[in-house]
């Protein structure tokens, strides 16, 4: 199973009309030992930062055309905790409610993310940008620059 790193960032900067877009960078080594990166980004939209982060994660997982072992780096504790602390299982068992029957936000995206995640072995890592840790800095640099792009970068497919 191929090893892939995905760096994500939901960006809320740079847009005078409100929160912005997302950036996703995939990094993998091919069968010849060559390192490849693929950038996916979405131009600015009016939506919440958590929603942008979910979109960033989904874009990365949906771009993989075969099952992979994935290390996914996100600066969103909301996204990472949902999986690492099994909130998702709880939400599904409670009919997508949390707390005292409070509806889970972004249900459509969470369901899409679960489907995108299914074929892969995904480990979610929370990264705190600008803390000096190599992977955190790499995530912050790569994904943030992708998210700051003003236009949609066309996905030309990823050959793994």
Give an overview in words.
The protein is α/β, with parallel strands linked by helices. The protein is 34% helix and 26% strand. The protein has five helices and seven strands. It has helices at residues 49-62, 77-84, 87-93, 107-117, 134-147; strands at 2-10, 22-29, 35-42, 68-74, 97-98, 102-103, 121-126. It has a five-stranded mixed β-sheet. Strands 5-6 form a two-stranded antiparallel sheet. Helix 1 (49-62) runs parallel beside helix 4. The relative contact order is 0.24. Mean pLDDT is 78; it is low at 150-160.
Lateral arrangement of strands in the main beta sheet: 3-2-1-4-7
Termini separation (Å)? 10 Å
Mean pLDDT across residues:
78
Can you give the helix content as a percent range?
A: 25-40%
Q: Count of helices? A: 5
Q: What are the segments in which pLDDT stays under 50 over at least 5 consecutive residues?
A: 150-160
How would you classify the helix and strand content by structural class? alpha/beta
- The gross shape turns out to be globular
What is the makeup of the main sheet? 5 strands, mixed
Please report the total strand number as a whole number.
7
Beta-strand percent range = 25-35%
What is the helix/strand order?
EEEHEHHEEHEH
Radius of gyration equals 15 Å
């Amino acid at each position: 199973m191929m090893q892939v790193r995905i760096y994500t960032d939901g960006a809320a900067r740079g847009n005078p009309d409100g929160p912005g877009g997302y950036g996703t960078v995939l990094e993998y080594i091919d069968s010849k030992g060559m390192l490849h990166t693929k950038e996916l980004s979405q131009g600015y939209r009016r939506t919440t930062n958590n929603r942008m982060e979910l979109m960033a994660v989904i874009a990365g997982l949906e771009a993989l055309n075969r099952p992979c072992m994935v290390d996914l780096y996100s600066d969103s504790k909301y996204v990472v905790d949902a999986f690492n602390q099994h909130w998702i299982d709880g939400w599904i068992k409670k009919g997508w409610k949390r707390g005292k029957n409070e509806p889970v936000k972004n249900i459509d995206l969470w369901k899409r993310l679960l489907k995108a995640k299914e074929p892969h072995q995904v480990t979610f890592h929370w990264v705190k940008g600008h803390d000096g840790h190599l992977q955190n800095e790499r995530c912050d640099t790569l994904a943030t620059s992708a998210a700051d792009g003003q236009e949609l970068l066309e996905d030309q497919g990823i050959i793994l």
